[in-house]
Amino acid sequence: MGSVGAKEVPNLLTADGLRIDGRRLDELRPIQIRAGPLHQADGSAFVEWGQNKVMAAVYGPREVHPRHLQQSTKAVIQCKYNMAAFSVDERKRPGLDRRSQEISKVIAEAFDSVVFAEEFPRTSIDVYIEVLQANAGTRCAGLVAASVALADAGIPMVDLLPAVAVGKVAGAIALDLKKEEDNFGEADLPMALVPQSGRLVLLQMEGHMTEPELGQALDLGVRGCRVIYEKMKAALRDRYSVAPVPSEAP
Amino acid sequence: MSEEVAAEILQTHILDLAAQGRRLDGRGPDDYRPVAVEPGFVTTADGSALVHLGRTTALAGIKLEVGKPFPDTPNAGVLTTNAELIPLSSPTFEPGPPQPGAIEVSRVVDRAIRAAEMIDLTRLCVSPGEKSWVCYVDIHILAHDGNLIDAALLASVAALSRSTVPAQRFGVGEADYPLAVQHVPIECTFVRLGDTIVVDPTFDEEHAAQGRITVATDESGRIVAMQKGLVGAFSPDDVKSVVRRAFAHGERLRRSVTGESP
Fold first, then answer.
1. CB-closest option in A40, A82, A128 to B145
2. Alpha-carbon dihedral of residues A102, A104, A110, A112, nearest 10 degrees?
3. Contact residues, chain B, for A133 at CB < 8 Å
4. pLDDT tens digit string along B78-94?
5. Chain-chain contact of B142 with A130 (C-beta, under 8 angstroms)
6. Looking at residue A63, what DSSP letter applies?
7. In this structure, what CATH number is given to the domain that contains residue B136?
């Protein structure tokens, strides 16, 4: 969103329809996903998405802390989204702020919509997302990392949850905004998709869009999610596929 | 609880091995785990480094901002060190305000940097009593397999020695310039396992330990900081012996973290 006191608005879209980093409107930033980088966690994943770097870890099902959150019929899914002090240009004071708490809540609810929580009554599934370097779209990158981490932890789920933000820059609907586009763009719409059902379990929006633009944005986001879905599956295959035994030792 | 029984069996095993000069991961008492440094891991920081110490991972990020010097040191900049033992890194860490363990890591690391005069704080003064640089050293522990103090300082030193003062961004200079480093402190931590004192403990060894001791040395042969931790005791001869060992490890580790200038 247009930040207060912003002076010059950079040219976000060329006449040829190319964006500030040379991408087309429907093009994602490069994404790399690694499943299982942390050995202490029950499941983990590291995502590099454009200039975002996000680590996620899953612990559980395990005992619930604090105890009073325990539910007798299902597991509680708790999420902590946190940004490192050095992850943004202006140092962020360490600790919980309202933005992190809101993001943690909507991500936890997204996962609660796909995890078979009723299989683990009286337990907690704890999802930790650490943003190490931020460049717009960290909640989606965190959600993707956490989803792969949940699968890595062997938590049964309906499906993986790919996520992406769609926005509006220089009047055009664009996939996967980077920082300059997010700061000076006109709208931001992060979403997470259940690919099996085609339904959205996370959806937020800020800015201005017309009804046709929103329709266009939703379609573009769903298509982006399906591309990310393939990358998530590939990361899990990389981790768990058994390498063919070479016929002769080198 | 079965987990606690298992932990007790493991502790006994670690102590039995140590009595024979052996360790669970095959190291000898004076073997340090391999250290790998990834400088510049975070581009949003003014300096950063990811350090792997065996399976322990620490990420340090440096941020410099213009602020106000403390009234009692009007001619010096401000150095602040903060370690976050985030719950992502270990099943034993919980969310919330920093626990005593995290505060100890921050303070012991801070002390080594400060006492070694790694950064000349007087050079971080912009105008005496009014304006100075505030240098934040933020340490994120990403994976905890023991010896967080050493890993945190290695990451901090690797990050600080490759940091840039963003003078242009804050409008207090024509151009950004490298942060000047005068000395390079290295901490070396040991734990007592029975009669054996082993270097660079793992998570399991720390749980079996009967005392922990950290010695910080710099390249000029000074001891700049020490900390005894955990329940247990060391004789003066033990202390002298670990200091000797800390100098030897320090020299080797210093080369691996500072590397070539960027």
1. A40
2. -120
3. 41-44
4. 999 999 898 999 888 87
5. yes
6. -
7. 3.30.230.70
**Measured distance CA(A144)–CA(A46) in Å, rounded:** 9
Helix (H, G, I), strand (E, B) or coil at A148: helix
Query: How high is the pLDDT of residue A133?
Result: 98
Counted domains in chain B: 1
* Cβ-Cβ contacts under 8 Å, B86 against chain A: 82, 128, 130
- The tens digit of pLDDT for each residue in A112-130 reads 999 999 999 999 999 999 9
Cis peptide leading into A10, omega within 30 of 0?
A: no
Write the single-letter amino acid at A48: E
Inspect the interface and report whether the beta carbons of B138 and A85 lie closer than 8 Å: yes
| B124: DSSP letter | G
Domain that residue B91 falls in: 2-258
Return the bridge partners of A19, or none.
Answer: A13
Instruction: Choose the mutation target among A40, A54, A135, A179 for the interface with B, i.e. most B CBs under 10 Å.
Output: A40
Boundaries of every domain in chain A: 31-238
The second-level CATH assignment, the architecture, of A31-238 is 2-Layer Sandwich (3.30)
Q: What's the CA gap between B32 and B37, in Å, rounded? A: 15
Provide the 3-class DSSP secondary structure of residue A37.
coil
B67: exposed, middle or buried (C-beta count within 10 Å: 0-12, 13-18, 19+)? middle
- Calpha distance B183→B121 (Å, rounded): 12
> Is there a contact between B181 and B254 (Cβ–Cβ < 8 Å)?
no
Q: How much of chain A, in percent, has pLDDT values that exceed 70?
A: 95
- Cβ-count burial of A214 within 10 angstroms (0-12 exposed, 13-18 middle, 19+ buried)? middle
pLDDT value for A243: 77
What are the pLDDT digits (tens) for B14-27?
999 999 999 999 99
SS3 A130: strand
Residue given tokens 């999802």 in the structure block: A127
Mean pLDDT along residues A181-185: 90
Nearest-by-CA chain B residue for A128: B88
Establish whether this prediction's ipTM goes over 0.85: no
Residue A1 per-residue DSSP state: -
CB contact under 8 A, A51 and B43: yes
Q: Does B44 touch chain A (CB under 8 A)?
A: yes
Cβ A84–B84 below 8 Å, yes or no?
yes
**What is the rounded CA–CA span in Å between residue A93 and residue A187?**
27
Distance of alpha carbon A144 from alpha carbon A42, whole angstroms: 17
Residue B22 neighbours by CB under 8 Å, 6+ apart: B28
Question: What residues of chain B lie within 8 A of the CB of A130, using their CB?
Answer: 86, 88, 140, 142
Which tens digit of pLDDT belongs to each residue from B93-128? 877 777 888 899 999 999 999 999 999 999 999 999
